[in-house]
Amino acid sequence: MSTVAGMVLAAGGGRRYGMPKALVEYEGSLLVERAVRTARAVCDPVLVVLGARAVDVWRTADLDGATVLANRDWETGMASSLRTGLDGLRGWPGAVDAALVTLVDMPGMTPAALRAVATHAAPDALAVATYGGVRGHPVLLGREHWAGVAATATGDEGARRYLAAHAVTEVDCTGLADPVDLDVPPGGVASAP
Asked: Which residues form the MobA-like NTP transferase domain (predicted)?
């Protein structure tokens, strides 16, 4: 059985939202708490990458035993958070075969969707959830791909370029989770940057 680490990317400043999404309360808990709880239901260990207002998130949120990694370059985009998480896993005690990457701003993510993608875990695995035929999250990155993903990740693209150049298992998660991310406050207008 493969060891799958959960990786929650939660470092962004939430420019369009008006605040870091890790600190956004949604249905009684912070988005980062929801994301960590969902990942913990399937993965061990779970890493959460923080950046914008990281100290506030760390002090405020119940991160349920997740390992916190700080991305000092969070303003450069999601790719730096992905690299921070992968670097943290490279030095992890004990073998981790694959990383299951999720985003903080997807409150409709479920353990069922994570589990469906995680079943493909192996050191050479690349898998991505699809919803109605459209790729989304979570994304599974086998250990053998971490260096390549880190080398090609730029800006807010994360692993997109690497995945486009390699064979990827698409896992239909339609109906298992809501793939919508929160870009602006519910019923609100995006805040000025």
From this structure: 6-166
